[in-house]
Amino acid sequence: MTLRRRTFLAGAAGLSPFVLAACATGGAPAPQAPKVSSTNGDAKNPFGVDPKAPLDVVIFKGGFSDDYAKFHESMYKKRYPEASVKHTGIQDVATQMQPRFVGGNPPDVLDNSGMPVPVATLASQGQLTDLAPLLAAPAWDTEGKTVGDTLLAGATSTLTFEGKALGINYAYNLGGIWYNGKLFREKGWEYPETWDGLMALGAETAKASIPLWTYQGQHPGYMLGVIMPMFQKHGGNEVMKHIDNLEDGAWQQESVRLVAEAMEEIKSRKFLLPGTASLTHIQAQAAWLKHKAAIIPCGSWLKNEMKSQVPADFEMQIAPTPSLSESDKIPFAAINNGPGEDFIIPAQAKNVPGGLEFLRIMMSVEGARQFAELTHTLTVVADAHSDQTSDPIIVSSNERLQAAKQVEPLENSMYPTWYPKLYEEASAATGVLLTGNLDAKGFVDRIQKYADKVKKDPKIKKFTR
C-alpha cells in the first residue's frame, strides 16, 4: 500500500472543502503546459532551462519540514546562479494553493502533501504537467542512466492518470507500528506477529500501568493505516482492489469486517490511552515518547517530526501490522511501504523547464542522500542509501523493507487519491469505531453507504485498476 502523509492526516481533519472543478478553469479549455523536450543534446540542461528565469517552489512543511528542499534549491542555484529561487514552506496546501490554481498563477514546483489539492481533480482538468520528459532525461549524477532508470518501482504509480505520469512520490515511507526497543527489552516484552499476541502484550503492558496503544486521535486516518494492511494481509490484495474499484459490498467483505471486530477489542479491553480521541498527532506522539503508551502507528517521518522531544536513550523501532490469523494470505513481514510526498509541476507554471530541472535535482544521488540525512527517511532513488549506515532508523527501515521484498507485497490503495471524500469518511468512521459507539458492523456499513454514494454520483470521475 502506498504510504502518503495525507493518507494519515486527511481523515478527521478533512480535506479542504473547495471544489476546483467548478471554478479552476472557468469553462475555458484545459491549460496546456509548454512543450518541453528531454532530448536537446545537453545532458546538463536537458529541458532548455532559462538560466535567468526565477523559480517558485512551494513545500509542505510537515513531518519532513522543508530543510531538504532548501538544500535542493542550493543545488539549483549552483547550476543557475543568476536565477532567483523563491521558497515557501506551508502546511494547509489546499487552502493556500486554491487561489493560485484558480488565478492561473501556480508555483513552478509544488509538494502537494499534507492537506493537498485533490490531485485527481487537477489531473482531470489538465492542470498538471506530463513528466515523461523528466523520466527520459539524463540522471543528474548517475552516468548512463535516465532519471526513470534510477527510480524504484511505484515512484509515479499513484500519480499516473490515463497513462501519463503527472507527479512523483519522492519519499519512500514505511508505515507500521512503532515501539521503544529499550523499554521492551527492559520489560521482557516482544513485539508479536499475530493479533492474539498483540492482545496478550496489551495485558502485560497493563500490569506495568502502560496502556498498549495510542494514536493521533484527531486524525484517525493513522489507525485506518493499520486497518487497511491488516485486511489486505488477511484476505489478499484482491480485498483492496474491490474497494478501489467501488465494487458492490466491497467494504463489507469478511476480511474488512473481521479486522473491524479486532479493533473493537482495543476498545472493549480498554487498551487505548484514555483521552486519545482528543489528541493531536504531536500530542499523541509526545505521550508515546513519555511511555504513556507502548505502541503507536506512524510513518517514517516520526523521528524528524518529533526530533526535539525524543529522549536520548529512546530506541525507535518500527514493525509491520500484525497478522489477524495464521491463515492470512500475505505474511506478517509485509509492511505498509511505498512512495509518498507528492511532487507536481502545474501546467500553468511560469517556469515549467525549471520545475522539471528541480525535480531532476531531487532525484539525484546527492539530493536523495541529503533528504535521508535530514528526515531519517528513504527516497525513491534506488541506489542512494545503500551506504548510509550511521542512522539506526534508516538501517532498520532498510532491513524491514528487504524482509518485505521476500513476500507478496501489499499493493497500492488507490481510493484515497481517486476519491478523497470516501477516504475522509472511512477515517472518520475509524475514529468512532475506536472511541465512540460504532461497532464493527456499523463501521463497515457506514463506509459502504458512502462508497455507494460515490459510485452513483455522475459528477465524480471513476477509475479502475
Automatic annotation (TrEMBL):
Task: Write the signal peptide boundaries.
Answer: 1-21
**Which UniProt key words apply to this protein?**
Signal
Q: Which InterPro entries match?
A: Bact_solute-bd_prot1 (IPR050490), Chitin_NgcE (IPR022386), TAT_signal (IPR006311)
Show the PROSITE patterns listed in the entry: PROKAR_LIPOPROTEIN, TAT
Q: Which family does it belong to?
A: Belongs to the bacterial solute-binding protein 1 family.
Protein name from the UniProt record = N-acetylglucosamine/diacetylchitobiose ABC transporter substrate-binding protein
The gene behind this protein is ngcE
